[in-house]
What does this fold into?
Amino acid sequence: MKHSITFLFLFICFLGMAEYTIVIHGGAGTISKKTVRTETELEIRTALSDALKLGDKLLAQGELAIVVVEKVVMFLEDSPLFNAGKGAVFNHEGRQEMDACIMDGRDLSSGAVAGVTNLKNPIVGARLVKDSTRHVFLSGDRAQEFCLSKGAEYADSSYFFVQRRWDYFQKVLEQENNTKGKNDGGAAYMDEGSLKFGTVGCVVLDQSGNLAAATSTGGLTNKKYGRIGDSPVVGAGTYANNSSCAISCTGTGEYFIRGTIARDVSALMEFKGLSLDKAGKETLDKLTKMKGDGGFIGVDKKGNVIMLFNTEGMYRGYKKSSMDQPVVQLYQKE
Ligand code: ASP
It folds into this structure.
């Protein structure tokens, strides 16, 4: 009798465990077998898979979506492989200025930082802005001072330095000098596999049905004049709303800002009643027509997943509670 009661209790607990889903990206661009070195490919696949496993573990424990997106993006920021946190790209002055945004689909609360240089994890700064101020978006040194005063970890500029990013920056500068000012006002867009983009993002549906999104980036190589991209802009590179979806974007940020790409996916679901897949495809078409490069990941409240892009590839992956292993993909055809 006692055994059957225990069994019944465990069975009810099992039935009560709701489904969850996590989706991540590590940037889109000219990512193909030709441009990505085999060792780098393996490292990237491992990093994405480890990030998904971390998120999966937290979600299985019942963690909230907003906590999971922050922790997973921190993990990706700590990896030198991506253009976020350690390994961020260099701006025109040779500095690494980083942007990040986090959004909670429960109440649309959000926080963002832009142009920070010494926060070890810019996404932690974004979370602090969301939770500890009346504001949404803080920029530059004063944003950084605020985040440090609230306990964010400081990192010296040398911590973020990654040689291959620096070498790529030197090549871009050289190309710019050769083309005399044609790229003035923006980044030079060179085709060099994984070095072109590399922003990271995470969207999550937790066991309680909450959605959240987070995106972190160093922006575009050789960016000028305090340029800020789409990643930290709510509705452009990042968006989450429990009644529709959570989205994180990557690509040529100017187009994502002008096209309000992340918000468009949500709006098409809210106002036109489209599915996540249809809303995502319609929005990607719009981006392509605008001549913007890149893609985005998304999840809805039913756990449907999209990973859409118009570039050769996008580092991406997802894991649902019902799956044994995460799915990780880099190229167009996989
Ligand atoms: N979207 C980012 C930006 O424009 C760059 C990227 O996704 O790699 O800042």
